[in-house]
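Minutes, project check-in
Item: structure for the 346-residue chain
Input as provided by the requester:
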Amino acid sequence: MVNVAVLGYGVVGSGVVEVIEENREVLMRRTGQTFRIKYILDIRDFPQSPYADLFIKDFSVIEKDPSVSIVVEAIGGQGVAFELTKRALAAGKTVVTPNKELVSAKGVELFALAAQNNAEYLYEASVGGGIPIIRPLQNCLAANELNEISGILNGTTNYILTQMEQSNTSFTDALMQAQALGYAEQNPEADISGKDTCRKTSILASLALGSYVAPEEIHTVGIEDVTTADMALAKELGCRIKLLGRVVKGKNGVYHLGVSPTLVPEDSPLYSVNDVFNALIVKGSASGELMFRGRGAGKLPTASAVVADVIDAARQTSPRPWFSWSERAENVPVADVRDLPHAYMI
């Protein structure tokens, strides 16, 4: 029996509970193990939930329960999520998270803490939601130098830019549409400012370099100032405007990083990725160019990636700590992607 505790019963947390509880037989057939949600931690009450008897408010119950081996952190942010993650890892429990803000800001510390306590800190869902990307980079492409990782990493901004281009909708109206459809938060600042994409780019850059790249090191521009006139001009040039996160290996092994609205030409695979879809292009030294595409957010796609990490943790087939990054050495430099020729950033 694999007992799992879920911290936070929002969109992703509730999705994780749903996937594990409703797919027990599938998980048993594929892993030979029974997975059970033992606790759900949330400050709110959910008396109408079919899992109402699993809710608790005291994390120490989870912390002190030796039968709980895996904790899913779906709280988000850095405050409470950071403190509870540290406590869970210190107790020798593996933590699985979709929390890109926490991974990008505190990953070095949390990976080290996991290693010290013979635990894991797994984060497949932190980039790309339901799109598998972390595990392919760590495992399937482990024999490659990663020469470039570029992509559309935020469905909200991609939807807004698609509406602006295809329907000649203003930025303000397109944002309101995204909010009405549930694609954008009521406070969309992290999305439209590029911060969300920057955090994900930080994680991808850290994997490419094998050492930590802080979000603050990545030049970031959002989409707030993009206009329909910009869209029309891009069309005349045979391009579309997409918000891209980019990690590009340049001369002398220097990695160039950036997040910005970017002119994407017609011959790019990213040109036809519209609406809320995300996509990543990875160029490996041996593999050549690969593309990963799908829904980058949403309750069940993200929960799917989280539960995949839960399964790996239970199988003990997840990447060992040496796959994670550490503090960057002085001889591993980074630079601005705008320094590259033909960066196409606007």
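Outcome recorded: The mean pLDDT is 93.
No further action items on this chain.
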